[in-house]
Amino acid sequence: MKNAFSIAFIALAIGGALGYVANGYFSDGQSSKSNDAASNEPLYWVAPMDPNYKRDKPGKSPMGMDLIPVYEEDLTGGSNDPAGTVTISPAVENNLGVKTTQVKRQKLAPKIDSVGYVNFDESQLWQINSRVSGWIKNLSVNAIGERVLAGQVLFEVYSPDLVRAQEELLNAKRMGKAALVNGAKDRLRSLGVDNGQINDILRRGKTRQYIAIKAPADGVIATLNIRNGAYLSPQQTVISGGSLSDVWVDAEVFERQAHWITPGAEATMWVDALPGKNWQGKVDYIYPILDPATRTLRVRLKFSNREANLKPNMFANLTLIPQTKESVLVVPEQAVIRSGNMSRVVLAAGDGKYRTVRIETGRTAAGMVEVLDGLDLNDAIVTSAHFMIDSESSQNADLNRINTHIPTEPVSQVQTTGVIRNIMPDHKMLTLEHPPIPEWGWPAMTMDFTVSDDSDLSQFVGGQSVRFLITKQDSGQYTLSEIQADEAHSSTNMDHSTMDHSTMDHSTMDHSTMDHPPQVPAMEEAEQ
């Protein structure tokens, strides 16, 4: 009997001990779960497209979008990051297709497209003018464009003036006076007779009725103004021609592009008549006068034409590549977000962190944009999906100054007055309507503030005028302290019937140092 009682007592004791331990375990678990649940409660709800529109319960934004909850870790997790920093998980980065590139330094020059016409190289043109009156015989060229060689006889001319000049030469030779002979030779040369024919006249000892006129250089005939039997008069242009070993192309560039073009700049040319071929040349001359009608500047380019495929008056397509010696910081043009007079990019800070920064841009060429200020060499910027990141980051980012210009001693405390619009004792928050705060570039507006732990909110009521101290914490949040009733100001003297914080324009507000704490604008007044 005693043994049975002992066994029952021992079993009861063991069961009691196990029950106590289990109860403590599950009680701790429930307490932990309760604490976790409490810590995971949203602090407030915010509009997806306007972080200044905040409420203490779920609802709709002025745009009809569901408000999203903000938790404590959302406010404290990035407190050491610059304003406007957003964090994106690797999975979301992959889904968005985020791509980055580095800021680099390179020569920046645009490729300028133009058109032009092929012409003779005018430095190699030649022409034959008549220096005497006479008649044409044995014309050897019949059409423009015919090729001729240097020294080739183009035509023969009979002129009484040439016959008399030959007789003077022969008479001087018979007289044996060298001075007269040299003078007669010079006269024949001035009339267009070459040395070979003069020597032949002296050797034969008699005049030639017809003097041959020869081509001075290789080339093609450009103009032909005579025919067999035609009569010539002095100063008449008879034949002209030129070489096509090199050609000139006259092109035009717009006034805004003219400063890029310098002599020696490279150019590429192709013509529709010869598909698949292109020629490399250089800018030979820049005309000094702008065309007032077309607002374009003429540019002359020179190309080699050894194969003689290019013909005068051909239509040509051109790409000019300006020369530049200076290397500048550049980013892809697609990475730059332009809004009004502002340009900005999304900076990749690493570890999934991104923020919008303002930059100052310069010239644009070949898909690249010159960066004058705001970025450093090798900075990583986003080139794809950056508009989506910017829409979130730019709401809180400081875009009133270039990224590199950061004030050294910002104001950390401001004393001001305001009117209480809402009291949230459970959250230790006040909704206050305050005047402009020039120290931080804030306009007059209604916003929410977290109050210091030693502040007693029970002594205040809605609509009461108060004086308070705003302090910027190291975390970037703003808190209120030293809150006192301001009897000198009465809320009845202020007309705020037209103020709606949900539709306020904060474009002029300097958010350079601002990271709003939980804010809930006056719900009743804003919604009425």
UniProtKB/TrEMBL annotation:
Alphabetized UniProt keyword annotations: Membrane, Transmembrane, Transport
Protein's UniProt name: Putative cation efflux system transmembrane protein
Origin species: Photobacterium gaetbulicola Gung47
GO BP term, pick one: copper ion export
Biased composition (Basic and acidic residues): 497-514
All copies of domain CusB-like three alpha-helical bundle, residue ranges: 161-208
Alphabetized InterPro entries for the sequence: 3HB_CusB, Beta-barrel_RND_2, BSH_CusB, CusF_Ec, CusF_sf, HMBD, MFP_Cation_Efflux, RND_pump_MFP
Domain CusB-like beta-barrel: from-to ranges: 247-322
Family: Belongs to the membrane fusion protein (MFP) (TC 8.A.1) family.
